[in-house]
Amino acid sequence: MWKTNLKVLAIALLVVGFYTTVAHIIPQLQSEVPEALALGSGVTPEALVAAGEKIYNGAGGCTACHGLGTRAPNLITDYKGQGAVGARCGTRKPGMACKAYLYESLTQPQAYIVQGFDPIMPDMRKQLSDDQIWAAVAFLESQGGEVDVTGEDIAKSAPAKGAAPAPTGPAMTATLDPVALYSEKGCIGCHQMDGKGGAVGPSWDHIGSRRSAASIRRKIIDPKSDTTKGFEKFAGMMPATFGQMLTAAQLEALVTFLANKK
Amino acid sequence: MTPMLALLQQAVTDTTGAYGHFPGVGGRGAVWVAAEVHLMFAAFVLGVPMFAVITELIGIVSKDEKYDKLSHEFTRLLVFAYSATALWGAMLLFALTTLYPKFWAHMTKIFSVSMWIYVSLFFVESFTLYLYYYGWERWQFGRGKWFHWGLGVLLNVWGTTVMLIANGWLTYMMSPPTGATAEGLPKGVTMWNAIANATWIPINIHRLIANAVFGGAIVAAYAAYRFLAAKTPEERAHYDWMGYVGNFIAISTFIVLPFAGYWLGREIYQYNQQMGITMMGGFMSWLWIVQAVLIGVLFLCANYYLWLGMARIPGAERFVPYTKWMLLLLIVCWIAWSTPHTMIATRDELVSMGGAHHPFLNVLGVMSAKNTAVNLMILTTFLSFLIYRRANKESVVPWARTGTLIQGAMFVIAAAVVLFYGVYGYFVEAIVRIGFSVYQVGAVLMCILGVSIIDAFIGRGARSRGEIRWGQMPERSQYALFVLAVTFTWLMGLMGFARSGIRQHWHVWEVMRDTSPDAFTPALGYAANMISLCVLIFLSLVAFIFWLGGLAERASHAVAPEPHGVAIPPGIAVARPGAAPVTGD
Q1: A96 near B302, Cβ under 8 Å?
Q2: Distance from CA of A57 to the nearest CA of B (A)
Q3: Would you place residue B195 in the very low, low, confident or very high pLDDT band (cuts 50, 70, 90)?
């Protein structure tokens, strides 16, 4: 019987050992906790780039999508002959410099969606501090472009001591023109209107015949409140920050405009 | 307050009192081991009662005593396993309260009422089990037997409810309701909302099926051990049959498990796309390659066991020539499934590959190839079961040939659908390709269902080509059952790491951050070490339980000795060396 016991033990150890070995010979990737940075106003571009590279390959989780060529555009290798991200970022959005574009991509990822991709990029402010985001911007600029991020950028975007925290959305403008808001707030990235815009969310054409004003308002403020039929796979994708990004007057202007689009 | 600011505030508030220290493996390691071993025992004590009541019911309805004895033997293992489950549960609780007091305070603040219900149900469940096991002889006949069977059903109800409550806690950590903060739930959000969160139902379904799979595999391993230790042909016959039943339950329920897993993954994506990407394409993407290796072993061993078993079935010879082709198909599919594709890669790795994808493996690594491979493996395994089942039967219905041809056509159509969408998937966008997996799975399920129904009718009143010679099984077949049990256990540990690890540095996803030194999510190598440690602890304890089960049996035999060791229930043919097969009555 001891022979049988030893055989059973050997089989168990062999099987466990085999799986453990397989798990050891594949690439060992560890998910790091985002490190708190202390980048002062005198930080050098080199220090920013070095910190950004760590974030890009680690805590930022950027390589989960960027670099595969399927989920998101390649950033550090060539993309459709346009070079790496540092070389092309200045020409993505007309009138927007590379630094501003990259910062916007990380903090308001739905504002501009590269053609051919789904809007799956999360708002990185949920995971990274502001100096970490600036460090990532500097690293991305260094990929084929010039680094112009400085300590002043970090200081400017950091909330002042004792002051109320900065709103998480983009700077608020005074416009009450719903068509301008459509572009400015990034709605165009997902919702079609008059033949323009993405198709990730329901079209805004004739939306007033499908939803009441109250329903539209609720959906903007709390996107998770319901999901439009046919768009279940994109559920949860609409940012929940529009309530902070729009003034009350802007929200009402937009709601009225949409409710009237019968 | 911005989310980052809130997290920084939490980090500042977290003083040393938020986390305890455990020597050697650290706090996280201690909780990991306690939770995983507890879970393995819990899966066993939830899975085994499921088929204990099913086999008891079959015994009552068919009046076949061997099923009742089988059910009784399952339950004997349960009695010992329950104590181990409770002990490891207590260890987990102490580990959490001493090593993660702040996190545990958060959980108790939200779930305290459900925790009281949980403990109460555990008591009720234990007493129901004692009644069920110790009342076996007393309520053996007539109405008493139905009452006894009702106790078995109740045992399952309590056990499942206990599992549902615990699942509520752990899924809350993955997908908390909107508005939850480190301080608790907002006004208007109740404990029920926290329990019935976005991933609760898919986890419940997935675990219910997985428990049946796991229970079947462990019972089959127990039977294998008893088979190898058997002193008489009767004992060998009994445990050969028991091993077959355990393996049949494990594999037949395992076949539907990927569909439940697919649903769970979809819900995770829907709740939070980033979490879904971390799981399938982020730093955890390599985990699925390890999973493919394990599942490939499971399919190969399950088929190998069946093919070896055909040697003891008169009439099975006519199917043997096909097995080598089935083996070839399984191996090809295994290779395709285990091939990496769009893996997370560092900058240097991308540069050295010359792009995002490997120039050669690219073709095999995509989901089209993987979905095709896994569906063909499922079809092949089902075919193995089918020919095993029909091996010693000769149909007497006049339409037997037509029925068999229709069954064959069903297999061909299902395989063609799987292959067609597998190839077509290379020519469409990813979003369209994802939908193809539904057609592939649908074709396979329809085939399994249709073929099984036809087979049930074809087999009606079938002539036997000879009794199955239970016990006449090569020893290596029993080692295949051990490999299956160890692999299922390891797979459970791996999937546990996947589910828990996708939260990364969050105790509760985007609600309560892990600020301990162990907050990082370890690489697969370290995780594999921990999983192996848990598996070895669990298997050692299970071996001890099996040994105790044997002791208890010997003790009962000492009181009422049976002439030939284990009594052979009616209906089991025993293979004696040099003798023609005889039935055991």
Answers
A1: no
A2: 7
A3: very high
Domain extent for B404 = 319-391+393-464
- Determine which helix (DSSP H) or strand (DSSP E) holds A175, and give its type and residue range: none
Checking if the pLDDT of B369 tops 60, the result is: yes
Picking from A4, A24, A26, the nearest residue to B229 by CB comes out as A4
Residues of chain B with Cβ-Cβ distance to A237 below 8 Å are 273
Which among B128, B7, B130 has a CA at the least distance from the CA of B509? B7
Position B162 pLDDT exceeds 90 = yes
Per-position DSSP letters for B126-189, written without gaps between them: HHHHHHHHHTTTTT-SHHHHHHHHHHHHHHHHHHHHHHHHHHHHHHHHHSPPTT-BTTBPPTT-
A164-177 CB burial, b ≥16 within 10 A, e <16: eeeebbbeeeeeee
Structural domain contains residue B346 = yes
* Cβ–Cβ gap B356/A15 under 8 Å: no
**Which of A4, A11, A29 has its CB closest to that of B483?**
A11
In whole angstroms, what is the distance from residue B230 CA to residue B564 CA?
A: 11
Inside any domain, residue B431:
yes
CB pairs under 8 A between A and B: 161
pLDDT at A78 over 80: no
pLDDT band for position B427 (50/70/90)? Answer: confident
Q: Are A31 and B504 inside 8 Å of each other by CB? A: yes
Residue of A1, A24, A61 lying closest to B528 (CB–CB): A24
- Residue B11 predicted with pLDDT over 90: no
Q: Is residue B384 part of a domain?
A: yes
Judge: B529–A8 Cβ closer than 8 Å, yes or no.
Answer: no
Is B360 within a domain?
Answer: yes
Instruction: Render pLDDT for B46-60 as a digit per residue (tens, 0 to 9).
Output: 998 988 998 899 999
From the list A64, A70, A237, which residue is nearest B282 (CB)?
A64
Q: Inter-chain contact B525–A23, Cβ cutoff 8 Å?
A: yes
The CATH class, in words, for A45-157 is mainly alpha
A33/B505 CB distance under 8 A: yes
Going by C-beta distance under 8 Å and a sequence separation of 6 or more, which residues neighbour residue A229? none
Q: Which residues of chain A lie closer than 8 angstroms to B2, CB-CB?
A: 125, 159, 165-166, 168
Q: How many domains does chain B have?
A: 1
Contact call for A12 and B486, based on CB within 8 A: yes
Upper half-sphere CA count for residue B3 (Cβ side, 13 Å): 19
Residue of chain B whose alpha carbon sits nearest to that of A75: B347
B430, closest residue in chain A (CA to CA) = A70
Span of A22-31, A32-41, B179-188, B265-274 with lowest mean pLDDT: A32-41
Closest-CA residue to B490 (of B85, B36, B31, B28):
B36
pLDDT of residue B28: 94
- What band does B14 get if pLDDT is binned at 50, 70 and 90? low
Instruction: Pinpoint the residues of chain A covered by CATH 1.10.760.10.
Output: 45-157, 178-259
DSSP state of B521: B
Do B89 and B165 touch, CB atoms closer than 8 A? no
Q: How confident is the model at residue B554 (pLDDT cuts 50, 70, 90)?
A: low
pLDDT tens digit sequence for A9-53: 999 999 999 999 999 988 787 887 776 666 666 788 888 898 888
Q: For domain A178-259, is the CATH number 2.60.120.260?
A: no
- When CB atoms are compared, the residue of A11, A76, A232 closest to B482 is A11
Q: Which amino acid is at A48?
A: L
Nearest CB to B290 within list A23, A29, A128? A23
pTM of the model: 0.75
Choose, out of A14, A24, A29, the residue to mutate when testing the contact with B (most B CBs < 10 Å): A29
Chain A: residue nearest B224 by CA? Answer: A8
Q: Can you tell me the ipTM of this complex? A: 0.86
